[in-house]
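Cross-posted from the bioinformatics board.
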Amino acid sequence: MCEGEGHVEAAALLTVPPRVINIGLELFAENLASQGAQVVHVRWSPPAGGNSQLANLLAKL
Amino acid sequence: MKIIDQANQEALRRIIAGEPILVDVIPASQAIAELADRVILHSGPPIGWDRMCGPMRGAVMGIAVFEGWARDLGDAATRAAAGSFSFHPNHHYGAVGPMTGMTTRSQPLLVVENKAFGNRAYCAINEGLGKVMRFGGNDAEVLDRLRWLREVLGPALGRALREMGGIPLKPLIARGLTMGDEMHQRNVACSSLLLRQLAPALAQTTKDTQALVECLGFIGRNDQFFLNVAMAMGKALTDPARNIDGSSVVTAMSRNGTDFGIRVSGTGDRWFTAPVEMPVGLYFPGFSERDANPDMGDSAIVETIGLGGFAMAAAPAVIGYVGAGRASDAAAFTRSMAEITVGTNPAWTIPAMDFAGVPTGIDIRLVVETGLPPTINTGIAHREPGIGQVGAGVVKAPLKCFEQALVAFAETMGAG
């Protein structure tokens, strides 16, 4: 990437319709979609729903 | 851990390598030697009379009268409360039963033999829809039908199957999946295919024409006739996958209307239980969720082998029946179950998914990691005894069972 190119791309984000990949909370994707935004939702949650004891066991298994 | 992956591949191999044949129908006392007087096998993990739900109690009362162990339903309830009957899970005796899952000594049992491993599994004959004992029905109509199954249909099916040398079930299931069955809440194709194979032998071996007409009519009117065959097959396929050291694959999922229980290969025959959940679905006219009993039955053995909710993509019509969304949602159920299974079964494929095999071999590690519980298609019983089925729906296996199993499994692996 050339110096300054990132600034140009960031600026373009404000001038074209957003295209969004949403990870985790589906509500964000639903809200964007309801306003006509192009959005793909990726279902994700922390391993074992965030239960650290079970996540540690999973890491060992 | 590599050793677990290898053990799980072995469990999957055994499930897939099974060669289930419907070989016979015999009295339960012949099939299961331990079925003495006043011994009642039920669905799900162990439970006593004091914790049984309404329909399970209704079925116990009815089967006690049917077997001649009580004068009437009231007498049966009194005797049950007094400890006159010995209750055990079907799964402890190589058997399975739908919904309440009553198995007692004089009932005829379907016999499925797994030729690849030499083991047998059993299930009672499907009674049809409506007011039936598996949904807690216990009036004269229900008991009369059970007598007819015992005295007419059971012996006739046994004669026909012995005459034919049995019916291989693996190719029958494969065909049913291409015809829109998932083998839990939709068995239209497989029931028809089974009858097509049975009918000539039934005609050949049933001398009483009136009895033959009744037998053919009973099977032909019952879209769910094949369910009980599929269940015995599921048990016959999963039993060889039990007790594999280091395997985190589920070998049984089952519910008694109070508790949901699972068994895992590497932890032997121990049950991991949690309160059973309420199905979400559609109700017959005049009934609602206020009438419903929580989830019940050994029938989740079909999901354990990759059918039922796991094969939803093969049966978009069932989505409407169980109220689980649009027909186009069916594939999403199967895809999500692929996230919690070890592999697929190449013998049982789904045309609508480019002939992908059904997701098979539930790994408790994947269930806990993803938080995705197995999806089970199920019938819904009325919560009061004696009424019967009020709807059909989908239910999730409680994650708590899998979390408990993971902790116990970790201990067996020295990782606790």
